[in-house]
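@channel anyone free to eyeball this complex?
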Amino acid sequence: MVAIVGVGFCGFNSTTPDLSWKEIVYEAAIKAYSDAGINPRRDVDSFVTCEEDFWEGVAISDEFVPDQLGAVVKPTCTVCSDFLYGLATAYMQIKSGLAEIVVLEAHSKASDLKTLGNAIRHAMDPIWLRPISRAHPYYLAALEMQIYMCERGLCEEDVARVVVKNKNNALLNPSAPYAANVKLEDVMRSPKVFDPLKKMEIAQTSDGAVILVVASDEVARKLTDTPIWIKGIGWWTETNSYDTASFSALYAYKAAKMAYKMAGIANPVKEVDFAEVDDRFAFKELQHIEALQFANKFEVARLLRDGYFDRDGVIPVNVSGGSLGVGNLLECTGGQKTLEVILQLRGEAGKRQIDAEVGVAQVWRYLPTFSGAVAVLGV
Amino acid sequence: MIEKITDPEKLRHWGGKIELYWVYTSGKAGDLFFKKLKADGKFLAAKCKKCCWIYFPPRIYCPKDFSETEYLEVSGEGRVRAFTVARLDPYEKELKKPEIYALIDIDGTNGSIIHLLGEVNAEEVSIGMRVKPVLKPKEQMLGDLTDILYFKPI
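replying in thread with the prediction:
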């Protein structure tokens, strides 16, 4: 097996005016190496980073990676995707025998990006979608939300409850800039900026970095008494076309199937203790809970209302506060979700600690995609 | 250091902006689609020769089983599967006039298109509503998606 033996993070903040993105990464890297008890210049065989040029504002952004990671004159590769895809790459590099210790990095300096909406527009099909898209691309999420609500018979409150749960969960997370003691009526009063999508149901961006030290079985056991094992990992893409998409988070269902199969999990409700799922739009959390097979498709909303996914529920979801509480960290979103699973499994989650042995981290590739990845971690 | 700087523009910084321009070619299927739309005001879809799935917008390959397609003509009319009233522009500033975006299932195909709705108030739009495309005057057409101005209720 492959294990996570060190973790470090910096953030998460709505803005980080005092640090450049490189300094954010440096701060997280120092913590990760200290946590793992390694020297990056001596011990690390390979570095994997996750980023996307449009978020960074520089082209060939992978070229800017090594310095702040202790990775100069070392094997380095960039995965142009979310952190969880990088975790899959790190896993494969170790399983193949190419490396024994791999460092994985993702960051967000979203506050530097003054035109998030236009960056997302550039991800739209330039022939069949972008030319008529004058509004903020959030409208695409609203269309998917309406289809999902109709197909599942959901009311507005069913979606709004996700915001209430996550923002309140975030109150116990010192690294959650969007924590708030909100009630259902507060969310229901939030303006419908993209009817039926409400302003408070959209995760705002935040800054930060997450860095993991990943190691082979043998090395992991030497480095630490508390390795977190990567039990399963999966990723899946449906299509980029809005005319053939299922609008039901099929990507998450299939990625979870792949990860569960690898982890030997037949009954997720019984075998998974908690999950951090992508909730960058509140309705996405409901879709993803369903895709991870924690509930039947017509039961998700009722179970959420009954507290099944609360911090003290049967399967706690987004104990960290999720992206609605912590913020949309762009390609580091899966990093924040993985970080929370690791902290919980290690018993280092502070006031929000729950009792758990197996956790799932799930991420979506954000608008305008039908792609995502899932990791199953355990002690 | 207790106090923090909260405005990035108060630090030494560089306001970056890069102007980039592309030419996006619409490909064989796209070219034919937009030429036919301009010449005859007609709409093209594409049917997979193997599984008979009818794609709209048309493409020359079937993404499901990776085989060839053949073109067929459709009316361009359809039904609203989903719609939203967008109130913010890409900079998250309020739009002067809210825009209605819809996912429209196109008649006689398995496909759909996302486009604007026009000549209708938001309160009057419903799921399943029948709509038809409104085209630009022929002499103003550019050969791209904006040649369809919007869809309006039938």
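from a first look: The first strand of chain B starts at residue 43 and ends at 48.
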